[in-house]
Amino acid sequence: MTELAATQHPAHKSRPAPGAFVARTVTGITGALERNVFSVENARLPGVLQQTDPRVKLVSILILLAATSLARHLLVVIAVYLASLLLARLSRLHLPTFARGVWLGIPLLGAVVAIPSLFLLPGHTLIATPEFGGMRLAVTDSGVSSAAMLLARVGTSVSLGALLILTTRWADLLKALQVLHVPAVFIVVLGITYRYLFLLLHTTNNMFLSRTSRTVGQTSGFEQRRWIGALTGTLVGKSLKMSDDVYQAMLSRGFAGEIRTFASFRARDQDRLFLGLAAVFAAGILLVDRSMM
Amino acid sequence: MHIPDGYLSPETCVVFYGAAVPIWYKASQRMKKLLNTRSLPLVSIFAAFAFTIQMLNIPIPGGTTAHAVGGTLMAIVLGPWPAVIGMSVALAIQAIFFGDGGITALGANSFNMAIALPLTGYLVYRLLSGNAPSPRRRAVAAAIGGYVGINVAGLLTGIELGVQPLLWSEGGRALYNPYGLETTVPAMMLVHLTLAGFAEAALTGLATAYLLRAHPTLFVVEAATVLKTGRHLGRMGWALVGALGVLVVLTPLGLLAPGGADFEWGTEELRQMVGYVPGGLARLREFWRLAPLPDYGLPGFGAEAGFLGQAFGYILSAIVGVGLIFVSMMAIRILLVRRGQAIEERS
Predict the structure, then answer these.
(1) pTM attached to this predicted model
(2) Torsion sign across C-alpha atoms A143, B283, B8, B168
(3) Which of A150, A189, A196, B257 has the fewest C-beta atoms lying within 10 Å of its C-beta?
(4) Over the stretch B241-278, which tens digit does the pLDDT of each residue have?
(5) Can you give the residue ranges of every domain in chain B?
(6) Residue A6, φ and ψ in degrees, nearest 5
(7) B94 touches chain A (CB under 8 A)
(8) Angle in degrees, CA A121, B300, B264, rounded to 5
(9) Given A69, A190, A244, which is nearest B93 (Cβ)?
């Protein structure tokens, strides 16, 4: 399998056209595969983040995520978001696509959660509907600020995560995990998983397509579920076979139970500067955050 | 069920990483014992399998579709500990590379879907399938195990989200997830008791039925190892209880942490906050009267009881919750021991 970079979106969160479960699944899987290929290109652009040491990038993004998580004021979270947009711009990512992907994609769930909180949280009433049967809906100040805070925080966190995965080749990102003292065995497992994930997705897609092409007319819900059960069972069988093959291949290449990874990163002064800037920025906004009333 | 970044406070995230790490360690130790280096590709590829499973849309009666998690199925095929590692790796890939579920929330998501889900699902499956069951009974046990597993994970997710506004609010403004337990738990349970639970049960049951026909050898090995180690199940139960114990000890610390910060703001801010809270609590109590321990505290331990009173009420409810789990674990153990003795007598 060729080198594949990360996608911006969770694969099964894409919104397929309404239709049969087969169509939905195929659309979802194909979308994940396509976005993957597409996003390799982003990681190859000559931008600031792409040229930063992956370890520095990982740690910096984690620092910014922590700052986003610790902030208590909306303005501070918005400041981090603006910083993430600036980084996206400096990394030559297409800004409208970047922002759209973040806000239309993942925080949809956030909106579903946040909108009712406008009404449900008690507080000073801002706007209210006329009374109806002793009940009325009122938008409260605490509801508005809670909803705004949640949306800003989720959107900012997602943007930061997207920056990391869009500008880093996944192999580099895996190696960078070593600075967090993630055990080597987990990094190897993550690497193998990521690689074979796409093989399994392709296989599943093909199974769905071949099934659709063999089916004429309507099938009952039970029959569809039974077929998915069989498909899953077949995938279990294929996975067992595949892992056996991979093990044989590892043995024949001299694997003796010892895991070696090589980290060939060299941090340059630019990288140290980047890390320093990220830390100063995060600490600075948190200081501002805590001094705001 | 994947909690994104921003919904959970940093304290909650740390607590759940803290609870997950010993279980990850335990699982990797057990895997080393159970399998040889062969486990490396096995776990990796089954993590990819878990990811793939979550992309399958399963038709639900009524015309909609839902996707399953597949943790119980993995525990049935590979055993509970490899399932813990495999599911955790799948969640890590989803969080790191696909932005599905937050990076800071990975500990909590893993606790729900990679630890609690496969362990309880597997426990129920073993309990119901017995020792020499018919394929039909096994498939039904697998389906019920999947159903229980995903609902436990859903309940945990609801609780984690629901304690956020209770513990981390500032002047009535929720800093993280704004809904209390009275909203999050019913919302999560409604979805998981119906749609997601059905999808998980169907996938786990039907795939197990298929595997019993197509790959019966998988289950021969499994039956042999499990029969020998009846105590193994008990140990798994204890691991779960231990993890929950860690959580109970750690979460009140989270309650105290923002409390310390509260006092930094000065009395004006505090008066504002305390002056506001009782009204809100009263309204929320009316909203969800069915909860046995409204607002996660006992009546009389609400905001009117002051900060320490609230903390005390909170710890008491935690003890009640964990006590209930402990009692059910003991009941399961007793059942298992009896069954084991009955088998020994027969043989």
Answers:
(1) 0.72
(2) positive
(3) B257
(4) 666 665 555 554 444 433 333 333 333 333 343 333 33
(5) 10-346
(6) -80, 160
(7) yes
(8) 60
(9) A190
